[in-house]
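#structure-requests
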Amino acid sequence: MQDKTHLVDDITGHRRMRRNRKADWTRRLMLENRLTVDDLIWPIFIIPGENIVEPIAAMPGVNRMTVDKAVEAAKEAADLGIPALATFPNVEMNLRDETGSQILEANNLINRTTAAIKKAVPNIGIITDVALDPFTSHGHDGILRGNEIVNDETVDQIVRAAVLQADAGSDIIAPSDMMDGRIGAIRRGLDAAGHQSVGIMAYATKFASCYYGPYREAISTGGLLKGDKKTYYIDPANGTEALRDAALDVEEGADTLMVKPGLPYLDICWRMKEAFGLPVFAYQVSGEYAQIKAAAANGWIDGERAMLETLLCFKRAGCDGILTYFAMDVAKYLAKQG
């Protein structure tokens, strides 16, 4: 028999990686990570009023919705198999003040939304944020005293808000404010109020990122912000500090951990999953969404492929799920592939 060994066989020791890539069926057999509808959390924006769907200019395809429209959207999401929604309110300017006191109103916009969705679509999860930025006149996530975001007074307030959100039917409290001690304080507050079954998704590593701009437009805080948020968000340069922050959240009783933003911080997603073993989520934030949409609109990239590739990379980085404005698009795409 003629020896057909090639130089490449000698170089590779007869190990050819392309054997597993040679056909569609082999590639499917070898697939390491898969994106499914079960990985998706859909963030939605709520506004006052009735029967209003309001496009957000900086986020093509994303709308602000009144509570009644949010209920309709929740039904559609549940029918597609999306497990959970994350709700963010755009409250009236006249209800915003220095301390964000409107967050302590039991019947405020975010709590009305939770109650309405839970009544109409009980099988979909509701994740709510207790940061104060949608409720403050200065756009910060905490209470501003002079030039300082005061930590402890803010924590006291968000604990009270978390209990009210749980009372309204929230399944998971997701505090994005990055105040020290907030996870443990919220856990104690929820338990004392009899909400032992309500989970906490810690924004364990929320970075002082440039990617939040379209979100701030969506909740009308961009023009309000005085200064920046660098005294409480994490510097993008600091990975070790991010892990220390996450470790404290784990010790304080977080049930799940979130990395925000997503794509620029895949290393943090992986390190958190390896370090703690808790479910880890990434938030593909508004700026990440907007840049894909803008590039696709200009014909520079294939928008659908970019959407799917970026979401899959979160899975590869160890994430158990992703908060993404693409959730409905992805769910519809996956249903067609069915």
